Amino acid sequence: MKILVIGSGGREHAIAWKLLQSPNVDVVVCAPGNGGTATLENCENVAIAVDDFEGIAKICTDQTIDFVVVGPEVPLAMGLADFLAEKSIPVFGPKKEGAIIEASKAWAKALMDEAGVPTAASGTFTDPQAAKDYIQAQGAPIVVKADSLAAGKGVIVAETTDEAIAAVDKLWEQGYDTLVVEEFLIGQEVSVLALCDGKSIRPLLPSQDHKQIGEGDTGENTGGMGVYAPTPLAPPDVMAKVQVDVLEATLKTLQARGIDYRGILYAGLMISPDGVIKVLEFNCRFGDPETQAVLPLLETPLDKVLLACVNQTLAELPPLTWYDGSAVCVVAASAGYPGAYEKGKVITGLEAAESLKATIFHAGTKLEGEKLVTNGGRVLGVTCLGKTFDEAITNVYQAIPNVNFEGIYYRSDIGHRLKKA
Ligand code: AMP
Ligand code: GLY
Q1: Region 184-210: what's the mean pLDDT?
Q2: How many Å lie between the centroid of ligand 2 and the Cα of residue 223?
Q3: Residues near 296 by Cβ (< 8 Å), separated by ≥ 6?
Q4: Average pLDDT over every residue of 186-204
Q5: Does residue 421 carry a pLDDT above 60?
Q6: Which domains occur in the chain, in start order?
Q7: I need a labelling partner for 47 at 20 to 30 A (CA). Which of 102, 126, 172, 252 fits?
Q8: Is the C-beta atom of 283 inside 6 A of ligand 2?
């Protein structure tokens, strides 16, 4: 089988790597891929952008692609799955009508209300003064969100009402014309990536991402600085509740609206100290870096799992099998990220880290001749497995110091919340 993977991050490297472990998969083509997918055996990069729909369709025909896996949210929200489906090209990833669950927070909030899915109390505003009045009435802390894809930059967790009001002005000036203002939730964040074929839905192992740049969860939000899976914060009884109250309730409402959702439904959850589950957000795709910890644990061939979603046979798929242990992924970033950073720094030490049984997923890298250089904010994700969580943590922090590039930064405390729990 020949599969096309759309995207260029660590998530897409992990998807391509896992697909190639399946005996059914001969070749993976990545559009556009990165320095990591360029060096994977039986993997080929094509220089086609994720929003070049015609180019993607042409590759599918020219290379006789069996099915397409879409990594990022932007092409899904733009309708890539619709475009490919119209050409009868099988695709993993929801159509535009489903991807809006990530692209519009106001839409997702309304869906959750209709479905009875537990989530933070909120208001949606198209008038900045009304948003400010709501903030004054509610008090702080409070959360202000732009109603669109903003690559993690459209959410402001405000400690004071002044800060929240300033956030309204800032987002309004940036051109966001719909804002969601939401109750601040306390607890631990858990990411549940669920497979959905439009008829049934089932979760992968739950994981915990670390969104902030600084040690101890401080500083600016990023795309994610590290993750471990599975997280004991979502044991089987919690996952059973998530299945019924979040995943099935959401699917039922999507179905009632006539939306045929085939792909990943990613539920970002907050679990309060007394065990109350609330949805912070939905995404329409695999998480990054969650995928780089969750997929290395998966033993069932990934092509079978994804095809079951595409072909609406998820209910018939036997239970997924998993490595009996933990995975930790630590992200190495460029100095300055999530702000401005330089590119083109030579990366060394990957083989030394790999000799310590680390799997290295490339995010912002590219090959310049023979040299591998940095090409983004999040550069690499270093993943290690362990029979236990502690063993996986020990392994990853033995491996990652071998990796180097000028300005390398990574958090040394991934998993710290679990240690405290
Ligand atoms: P979102 O894109 O909606 O997931 O928000 C990005 C991040 O902001 C989340 O991962 C949380 O860390 C934080 N956040 C969002 N909404 C809330 C909330 N209601 N209460 C507390 N933190 C939040
Ligand atoms: N790691 C967070 C996300 O993928 O949205």
Answers
A1: 97
A2: 6
A3: 14, 18, 323, 327, 359, 383, 385
A4: 97
A5: no
A6: 2-95 (3.40.50.20), 121-183 (3.30.1490.20), 188-316 (3.30.470.20), 326-420 (3.90.600.10)
A7: 102
A8: yes
